[in-house]
From TrEMBL:
InterPro entries: DUF4116. This is DUF4116 domain-containing protein. Residues 201-249, 393-441 form the DUF4116 domain. Pfam families: DUF4116.
């Protein structure tokens, strides 16, 4: 063929000449065509430049690796596709304080950008740089990127911000040497990113749970049943107890070992922190709940009871032990309300606030005389929840006001007129005078009983008695005497 001649050849000779050939071959002879010779020179120059560029890249790469500490913290963009540079960069800078998966790419299109520069547009290249900054924790770059460009790569941005994938090269999670190298990236091991055969590797799992006990969740069933491995995980993070095998959780000796680790763990100084761990570990275990109540009730707060499953909340044995140990229960199960002895024991030790809270759960007034007769010895508001019949029971009311004078407020109108009951009430609490009937509030003997208990009752007198001059003199004398005695006692205490 001639140098300037281009020949079209049909691959199938049997086809009609009018049809276009399937393949067109163009032959160019650079030896005799000056124009084509120029193309040859350009092509040769291109190859030469690529060779020189690659040599320069290699020299720069080696210089960067040898003098890593002298460079900025960022990995140069020209080395983002080089595995060795990536590994050395992560190991040197200890990047990865947050959880990340070294076995995945930040996003597939980022790697593709460097593999096919010709196909990558300028926007992709810019966003690749932006996401690289974000992946390294330099979030200030977001202040200089238009919002529309960020949203164009929204899914990639979300993945990077979550630190789910933090390395722009793919590593092989099935290679144990690669796994150990990846461990050095952030001084952490995340078992959930590893294949099953490595999750069952005792050495790998042991290292992982020592770094973070919660890795136990992703260990094999056999290793979650390994007492030594599980105890190491709990020493690292007590919450990892929930991932131990069910067989170990049935072993009381093992559970006591776990409890002792929490109680003696370094760094847990606050009682609240210990209680929180204990709740997470044992709140659904009846055997341990009873053991804790009997031996460590000081660590159990009412939130522990609230966290227990309903089955345990309604367990009579658990409830009895909680009540006897004076552990507060917010909402009483029906089994407590319907059990007179349990309910009474609970109310005996309840503060005024919780007493009202518990009593408000009753659907009807108390009609049991024996129950109420015991209850009025412990709380002044007990009579408030008695039936009308019991509020009119003289013996019960007398017992109530003798213990708590203010209980006079809740008795029947008829008994507020009873001189003996009112006198007993004001002897216990002078302010109870305000709950007596008008006639007894004007009775001088009753008033004197009240003043003897408390001189500051002038506001509780009737309008008529407030104008009594002699009574005012008595008040002043009583108040002065009480004040004098208070000062003398205070002075003696100071001395």
């Amino acid at each position: 063929m001639m140098a300037s001649q281009r020949t079209n050849m049909a691959m199938d000779e049997g086809e009609d000449d009018s049809e276009e050939p399937l393949v067109r071959i163009e032959l160019i002879d650079f030896l005799f065509n000056p124009e084509d010779d120029l193309n040859y020179q350009k092509l040769k120059q291109k190859f030469d430049n690529q060779t020189k560029g690659f040599a320069k890249w290699l020299l720069e790469r080696e210089n960067w690796r040898l003098n890593l500490e002298k460079f900025d913290s960022l990995l140069p963009i020209e080395f983002l596709s080089d595995r060795e540079c990536i590994e050395e960069y992560f190991i040197w800078n200890r990047v990865g304080e947050d959880e990340f998966n070294p076995f995945n790419a930040i996003a597939p299109w980022i790697t593709k950008t460097f593999e096919h520069d010709e196909d990558a547009d300028e926007c992709d290249y810019e966003m690749c740089v932006v996401l690289r900054y974000i992946g390294l924790g330099i979030y200030d770059i977001l202040n200089y990127v238009p919002t529309n460009k960020l949203w164009s790569r929204k899914q990639d941005l979300v993945e990077v911000l979550k630190f789910v994938e933090a390395c722009p090269v793919r590593l092989d999670p099935y290679d144990i040497e690669v796994v150990c190298t990846a461990k050095q990236f952030c001084e952490k091991i995340y078992l959930k990113f590893m294949p099953n055969h490595l999750q069952g590797d005792r050495e790998i799992v042991e290292q992982a749970v020592c770094i973070n006990g919660l890795n136990l969740e992703y260990a094999s069933e056999a290793l979650r049943n390994d007492r030594e491995i599980v105890l190491k995980a709990i020493r690292s993070n007590p919450c990892s107890y929930v991932h131990a095998s069910s067989q170990l959780k049935r072993d009381m000796d093992f559970k006591k070992q776990c409890l002792n680790i929490v109680l003696n763990k370094d760094g847990i100084e606050q009682k609240g922190a210990i209680s929180s761990y204990i709740q997470t570990m044992f709140s659904d275990d009846k055997e341990m709940v009873l053991y804790l109540i009997a031996n460590h009730s000081n660590l159990i707060c009412h939130s522990f009871f609230n966290r227990m499953p309903n089955e345990l909340k309604n367990d009579k044995e658990v409830l009895t032990q909680c009540i006897m140990a004076r552990i507060h229960i917010d909402t009483l199960p029906n089994i407590v309300i319907s059990n007179r002895d349990l309910f009474l024991e609970l109310l005996k030790n309840a503060s005024a606030f919780y007493f009202e809270q518990h009593m408000s759960q009753l659907t009807e007034r108390i009609v049991d005389l024996d129950f109420m007769s015991t209850l009025v010895e412990y709380n002044e508001q007990a009579l408030k929840y008695a039936s009308d019949e019991l509020k009119g029971n003289r013996q019960l009311v007398l017992k109530a006001v003798t213990n708590f004078g203010r209980a006079l407020k809740y008795c029947s109108d008829e008994l507020r007129k009873d001189r003996d009951i009112v006198r007993s009430a004001v002897r216990n609490c002078g302010i109870a005078l305000s709950f007596a009937c008008p006639e007894l509030r004007n009775d001088m003997s009753i008033i004197l009983e009240a003043v003897e208990n408390c001189g500051f009752i002038i506001d509780n007198l009737s309008a008529k008695m407030k104008e009594n001059y002699e009574l005012h003199i008595l008040f002043c004398t009583e108040i002065f005497t009480q004040h004098l005695w208070r000062n003398l006692l205070s002075r003696n205490c100071r001395n």
